[in-house]
Amino acid sequence: MSESSSTKLPSEPANGSSEVPETQVVQNGVDEQTQVEDGAEQVEDTPFPIKIVLPNTKSIDIHVSPLEQFHEIRQSIIENPDAVEYSCFHLAHDGKKINDFAQVSDVEGLKANDELHVVEDPYTEKEARIHFIRIRELIGAAGDRTDTIHGILAGLSVHDDVVFAAEEAKQSKGEVKEYDFRAPVSLATLLPKESEPAPKTVKNISLSPWHPPPAHLRQQGHLLYLVVSTNEGNQFHITAHAGGFYVNNCSNAKFDPSKKGDEEAHSLYTLLSQISKDFSDKFEQLQQFTNKRDPLSTFQIGNAFPSAPWIVPSTGSPLLSHSPDSARTQETYLLGGAENTDSLRDWNEEFQSAKELPKETIQDRVFRERLLCKLYSDYNDAAARGAVLVARGEVAPLNPTEDRDAQIFVYNNVFYSFGADGVGTFTSEGGDEAARVATGKDILGVKLVNQLDIAGLYTPGTIVVDYLGKRIVGQSIVPGIFKQPEDGENQIHYGAVDGKDTVAADESFAASFETLARALRIKKHTVWDKEHKAFNLEASVEMKGLRGTDSRKYVLDLYRITPLDILWMEDDKVAEYPHRMTVLRPELVESLGKVKAREYITAELAKRQPQKDTTDAAAETKEIDDKPAQDEAAPSESAKDAEAGDVEKENEKKDEDDKANRVDMSSFNWALNPDVFSGQEPQTDEDKEQMVKDEQEVRDACKYLRETVIPELLNELRESDISFPMDGRSLTRQLHRRGINLRYLGKLATLSADKRLSCFRELCVREMIARSFKHVAAKYLKPLPLPLTSSCFAHLLNCLLGVGLNPSPKADIEPSLRSLYKDVKLEFENVTPDSLKADVQEETKRRFNYTLDDEWLAQLKHLQVLREISLKLGLQLQKKDFVFTAAQNGHASNKAAEPEQAQAPPETKTKNKKKKSARDGSPASIGSSTGVAHTFSPKDFVNVVPITKDSCPRSALAEEALDAGRLSIFQNQRKLGEDLLLESLSLHEQIYGLVHPEVAQMYHTLSQLYYQLGQKDAAVELAKKAAIVAERTVGVDSAETVLNYLNLSLFLHQSGESREALQYARHALDLWKVIYGPDHPDTITTMNNYAVMLQSIQAYHESRKFFEQSLRVCETVFGDRTVHSATLLFQLAQALALDNDPKGAVNKMRESYTIFKTVLGEDDKNTKEASHWLDQLTQNAVALAKQAKETEGRRTRFKFSTMSTPAQPATAAPPTSKKMDDNRDVDLLVKYIEGTEKMGSSKSSSKRGPGNPKRRGGAAKASS
Fold it and tell me: What spans are recorded as compositionally biased (Acidic residues) (predicted)?
């Protein structure tokens, strides 16, 4: 992998297309260049300073912008350390209250350096609850939470542990710790290290048993009753009043909420500091404890699902300690109120109202997109929680008499249904399998429509949740969707009704659907109902338009926005596929559309070429004829006027040329008919002829996928033009980005027979096995109650991954659970390794048209397959040393007496040794009810998190600013480009929040752009943020996280912090072992970079090892007689010379020279350079051999007991003295060998020697 090149400065248009150069394309008469400039529009927004005066006499100086709203300023005040106690207040200027949603520019007379006063407001019950929740979080009094959807340690980050190790390495200045390439994978890499607990400011704080206040006291302003236990051991009962908080006279046995003493304050924080002397000191210690970590690693994740790790600490770990907290069960009330009205929301109305907000100005768009992002986040969270309850059977259905798959539910104003064919809609398409796939395609279509943001066209909020083998679809309730239509009316106004028997074509929907169809490249076409009546539809007949009772136009059922992949269905080699929902991906249709557009442009330009040649010739003749007259007239005019006239004429000519080169795309309208091959029967000859054309266009699209897209991907991987994926997620993303469906994994694996593609083939096979296992497991999980699922997971995984330890595993089911669930069929008990193997093979053949090798089970990388399966099923397993084979079991038994945390400090090791339970030992030693060792036991599976797919669109505004910034830099407008990039970053953070996958990607992109612009400090800072945010939102062991850590190490090395950089690179290599295993092709570059970093700190011996390892992987992937291996041999020879191994250096350089000569020929510059280096290294080795011989001779003659250092000959290589070697630079090695550079001299010669051969990224990038 080339860590620094995955996002480049744009050397081509930002959209990555390779359209005809120097040709401006006009889409529907609108110049695209104009669109870019409009997207990059800058509004004057110059910040100015103001002073915030707090009630505690402190003040805060902040900068505000005229377009900023006061609720944003209010939030920044709340988050300021000097204003921690305030949450219920308003801002005032010159004594006048300011509306929170007003803009700064709306306040009359507000100017730079003015004062805004924080004025405390009376509390309402809601404000008091919010204040109480905030103060509990702030003072660290909130205990651990058991979340139903986010999982254990959701959103964790190990970055701080890596930083700590990097700081230690930086300060040590000693020898570099050796890296063991053969060491087994340590899952501890994925988990934060245990640390001391945070200081406690109070023992406990919660709602009092006396809460809520009686009616007569509510009339007097009583809001909440609290009880606090301080560190001093005192208990206080507190009244939350409209005017603030005060200690009352209540006790556990007596109710007297009247005021006691003088302790009262507007803020609960202030009151706690009054009643507890220890509180302020402990709070300061808590802040210091928290500040040890990077703020981003603890910042609350607001607009995204936090990533749930698949490996979590053992249940006895301090990281998972379950502490008492009286307020934990009270949080539902504290968040939602007594009637839960705060959390009961009309999701659909909120969505559609937000979409109808104005978007004329940039500020309007920022506010609208930020609101939508927050709304989608809140909806996804609420809908996922409801889906989990539906899957567990804890929500009553609206139609309890129907079959389970046909039941529907409403919970928290979200409508739920199962992703199964409960009512027979998809009987002809494949039943339950087709219905399940249709839900995934539908949410993809909804997301595309949301991204297009078409005015007047609405979609319901949609989410798909996979949980314990069930797929649940959650949608916001469209007004009128449950209304029964009157006689003669259809509920659907556009598209198919009652299957396809009836077709509706309300013309009021046509305009909106036309806009949608044009964007999705859907051709307007004819469809027929059961009576053979023709209807001209803008979109697929399956896509439905519904007018809600709110008079809005909704588009539903977007699962067929692209046509069927007919070549897949007609392929004789394909076994019977589970369903007929094999549609093409939208990315493929868009890619082919761009190809057709380029062909159209080329054809249009070709038509103009003869006319242009004639015009150019006439113009040239006229210019020649006019030249004498111009020469004669020139003396009578000033040179300045003549020059100005020439420039003006050149500009006019350029404008004319630009207009001549423009191609009007309004007549280009390539699109596909999504309803071909779906049972439509044309009635007239004209319709039949058109249908044949439409079918051929779809066949051409399928052929484009098979004959162009797939071969291009494999060729780019073979030539190392793109990075190899690391795991199933990155593989899926890479295929989908190119429009390749995952059903082609089998074809991709078959075509990857080349040795260079062995990594890609292995990933494809692994992904097919993991997905096939997921489908097999779903069949057994679907009818099981939650308490039995852990036994099912353990048994199925023992049959798949544990047969090397126990070839005949038995299901481990708690007897009490077996007797409790007598009516449940425990079919998973009957699964054997052989039957599971057959099921996985059958699923792989059916779904991917691929036949697994006979020995596929023995060839699995067990840990990596376990990771893939866990991520796909949402499993969270306890960390332990998983034993997959009997050989591992013997090794683990020998280590059984060793503590799990062998590398922990001695005091930690001694302290924890007694507390270790059998759960922390090796799996072979774990007892189970079966009495036989198994790789997995039910207790290993501590949680299952739902897997969600959402329909939240990306921010168009933030992406426009990013693209405009890239384009400006590409056009050498660096200052404007950097401003736009910063603006894009600000927009990303404003709209998404600080911790979000899109923000992580933005940090990553921006860090690379800044690195390429030479701003290394900014690149390092952004790369750190990218790593942390990716850990917390994508996964601590995701491919994105690995890439961010590799970039961070590279940027640090270029900034001169090589020791710190090495720790980040080491961590990335450890993650790589977990994700893929050893010998990933992209590690060649990573190890080269690591070796160069080692050389920069003069760790030459360790550097040599990394070059050797890089060469080994290269020869495994590319072969030992390739240019790649020759280049690495060249580098290794240099490393050996630096490591004082002249003989080895000569041998490796000779190998490099031989390969270059054989592959490239004697005249190639790489061959010549290798030859030159070989000569110099050979002379150096001979000189050193003579020197050693003379030294030995003197030793013999004079019988010296120690060796003296002789004078160095003029042609000597690096001397044996380490001190002299320390003054060496790798780039000066050849000069030093040739004797043209004096020992110890840092002054370089003006004439440089030959450089290294051309190489692919790698060390060259790290050292540049």
Answer: 34-43
**Residue 270: alpha-carbon gap to chain centroid:** 41
Whether omega for the bond prior to residue 212 falls within 30 degrees of 0, making it cis, is yes
d(CA 905, CA 903): 7
Between 438 and 1220, the more confident residue is 438
* CA 1217/CA 1206 separation, integer angstroms: 11
- The full DSSP string for 46-90 is --EEEEEEPTTS-EEEEEE-TT-BHHHHHHHHHTSGGGTT--SEE
Range of lowest pLDDT (43-47, 767-771, 1040-1044, 1181-1185)? 43-47
DSSP 231: T
How far apart are alpha carbons 189 and 1035 in whole angstroms? 13
| Selection from 48, 391, 104, 310 nearest residue 878 by Cα | 310
CB 996: neighbour CB atoms within 10 A?
22
Euclidean distance between CA atoms 11 and 970, whole angstroms: 6
Burial label, 641 (beta-carbon count in 10 A; 0-12, 13-18, 19+): exposed
**How many residues does the structure list for the chain?**
1264
The total of other beta-carbon atoms located within 10 Å of residue 375's CB is: 20
Looking up tokens 């979080």 gives: 137
Report the alpha-carbon distance of residue 403 to residue 837 in Å, rounded.
Answer: 32
Q: What is the mean pLDDT of the chain?
A: 83
The DSSP secondary-structure symbol of 672 reads: B
Residue with tokens 């053969």: 182
Of the candidates 771, 781, 732, 839, the residue with the CA atom closest to the CA atom of residue 467: 781
CB count, 10 Å around CB of 681?
10
Phi, psi of 696 (to 5 degrees): -65, -40
The torsion of the CA quartet 800, 804, 806, 807, rounded to 10 degrees, works out to 70
At 1096, which helix (H) or strand (E)? helix 1083-1096
Which residues have C-beta within 8 Å of that of residue 1022, sequence separation ≥ 6? 1003, 1004, 1006, 1007, 1010
Burial 542-559 (b: 16+ CB within 10 A, else e): bbbbbbbeeebbbbbbbb
What's this model's pTM, rounded to 2 decimal places? Answer: 0.85
Tokens (6 digits) for 539: 């979109």
Beta strands 115-120 and 48-53, pairing class = parallel
Spatial CB neighbours of 193, under 8 Å, sequence gap ≥ 6: 161
Which amino acid is located at 1252 in the chain? Answer: N
Residue partners of 1205: CB distance under 8 A and separation at least 6: 1217
447 contacts 951 by C-beta, under 8 angstroms: yes
